[in-house]
UniProtKB/TrEMBL annotation:
Source taxon at top rank: Bacteria
Protein name, per record: Histidine ammonia-lyase
UniProt modification remark: Contains an active site 4-methylidene-imidazol-5-one (MIO), which is formed autocatalytically by cyclization and dehydration of residues Ala-Ser-Gly.
Pathway: Amino-acid degradation; L-histidine degradation into L-glutamate; N-formimidoyl-L-glutamate from L-histidine: step 1/3
Entry similarity comment: Belongs to the PAL/histidase family.
Keyword Ubl conjugation set for record: no
Gene Ontology MF, one: histidine ammonia-lyase activity
Coiled coil: none
Organism (species): Cytobacillus spartinae
Gene: hutH
Length: 494
């Protein structure tokens, strides 16, 4: 069981909860902190102190005071009015992660909610009731208002959920699991929606898949090196130590390990003096992408344990401060960085694909065709890869450089972090397909060279991959092969 404290959640724990459906609980010390924070909100309401979001309107309405008898209606009105997302829903994995991250943030005890609110979020996780949350509509400050409003609606029995493989009304799913809808109290609606959990949940799923892609790209590239009879000298440790980047050094070491006993690799001067950059510079390019992913990981590990709503309550209510922790700029920049880093893995992969299929660049059969001319072989696989990397270049344009004022210019700078996280997911899917294409081509190339000459490590990958996609004995509908290999790459890591 993953126990939420508000400060100790790890990406590995998120992965276990999201993909392996591990159960979740809340630490007793967190429950006590949450209780104290909620008591402070109750005193503020009883004493009629003016505090943003508790007895005032929101955004541009922050100067509008709310009567004590209307504070509960204020919270329900908030989530109903803000639930205006559009477009396809986030993947169910992202919705599940959103519940987890929102519960963990509230468990820090700075938000003034009742423990039952967090317990209800945990019940949704443990009963696999996942809110249907439209992907579009968030500016990334004040947090992910629209997406998190769709999540919050489920707690009051409204909206829709993923439940047992179908989409149904939240009320029906709650009823079947014996869960009663909540009536929100002072500040609870605001605490639920004022945060970065949509962009961060999407970002965590992005990162976990991106990390997987980065490591898979290395053994796939190793098969390509064998198929092209690449020069191993470029991966010599001394070269990479001379530059000093740890990630570059590690990539070179892993490539050497994959190819340790290969009879297909060459030494410089045997067949050629140098390989093209897409082969020779694998450690430098892949290593730089891993550097970017390390940066992204650091930001996500902070954000999944961050208090990101507003206002925050300190010192048992003696200090209540309106600030801007909901602003998604740290995650927006990280997501844009990750988009570029992962897109580059596809860019260099597509160039390796070209070298595998282009008869002017290698001595392999033209387009790896079994009967060049009569059969096109892998010719159009490269077209597909080229299209995907071109699309990625558009998606990699940074979202965080844009900002549109909102709420009557009260919220005059926003992050667009959720857009960045969504686009990162699209790029990752494209990269996955490009790597699948490289793998299909590399498998064919090493067959031509002689499978018995492969390294023992790459041979294991070859045998496993051949169970997913057969050799190209004649032309067929390769779209199905690409999808099958892509799915295998995606789900072999979970």
């Amino acid at each position: 069981m993953v126990v939420l404290t508000g400060h100790s959640l790890t990406l590995e724990e998120v992965r276990r909860v999201v993909f392996h459906k591990e159960k979740v609980g809340m630490a007793s010390e967190s429950t006590q902190k949450v209780e104290k924070s909620h008591e402070a909100v109750k005193r503020i309401v009883a004493d009629k102190k003016v505090v943003y979001g508790i007895n005032t309107g929101f955004g541009k309405f922050s100067d509008v005071l709310i009567d004590q008898g209307d504070v509960k209606d204020l919270q329900l009105n908030l989530i109903r009015s803000h639930a205006c997302g559009v477009g396809d829903p986030f993947p169910e994995t992202v919705s599940r992660a959103m519940l987890l991250l929102r519960a963990n943030a509230l468990a820090k005890g700075f938000s003034g909610v009742r423990p039952v609110l967090i317990e209800r979020l945990i019940e949704l996780i443990n009963n696999e009731i996942h809110p249907v949350v439209p992907q579009q509509g968030s500016l990334g400050a004040s947090g992910d208002l629209a997406p998190l409003s769709h999540l919050a609606l489920v707690l009051v029995g409204e909206g829709e959920v993923f439940y047992k493989g179908e989409i149904c009304s939240a009320n029906d799913a709650l009823s079947k699991e014996g869960i009663s809808p909540l009536t929100l109290e002072a500040k609870e609606g605001l605490a639920l929606i004022n945060g970065t959990q949509a962009m961060t949940a999407m970002g965590v799923i992005d990162y976990l898949e991106a990390e997987r892609i980065a490591y898979q790209s290395e053994w796939i590239a190793s098969l390509t090196i064998e198929g092209l009879r690449g020069i191993i000298d470029a991966f010599d440790e001394d070269i990479h130590l001379a530059r000093g980047y740890v990630q570059q050094i590690d990539v070179a070491r892993r490539i050497r390990d994959y190819l340790a006993d290969s009879h297909l690799i060459t030494k410089q001067g045997e067949l050629r003096v140098q390989d093209a950059y897409s082969i020779r510079c694998i450690p430098q390019v892949h290593g730089a992408s891993l550097q970017a992913l390390d940066y992204v990981k650091e930001k996500l590990e902070i954000e999944i344990n961050a208090a990101t709503d507003n206002p925050l309550i300190f010192d048992d209510g003696e200090k209540v401060i309106s600030g801007g922790n909901f602003h998604g700029q740290p995650i927006a920049l990280a997501m844009d960085f990750m988009k570029i880093a992962i897109a580059e893995l596809a860019n260099i992969s597509e160039r390796r694909i070209e070298r595998l299929v282009n008869p002017q660049l290698s001595d392999l059969p033209p387009f790896l065709s079994p009967e060049p001319g009569l059969q096109s072989g892998a010719m159009i696989l490269q077209y597909c890869a080229a299209s995907l990397v071109s699309e990625n270049k558009t998606l990699a344009h940074p979202a965080s450089v844009d900002s549109i004022p909102s709420s009557g210019n009260q919220e005059d700078h926003v992050s667009m972090g959720t857009i960045a996280a969504r686009h990162a997911y699209d790029i990752i899917k494209n990269v996955n397909h490009v790597l699948a294409i490289e793998l299909i081509c590399a498998l064919q190339a090493v067959e031509f060279r002689g499978v018995d000459k492969m390294a023992s490590s790459t041979r294991k990958y070859f045998d496993e991959a051949r169970r997913v996609v057969p050799t190209i004995a004649k032309d067929r509908q390769f779209s199905k092969d690409i999808e099958r290999v892509s799915e295998w790459l995606r789900y072999s890591w979970v």
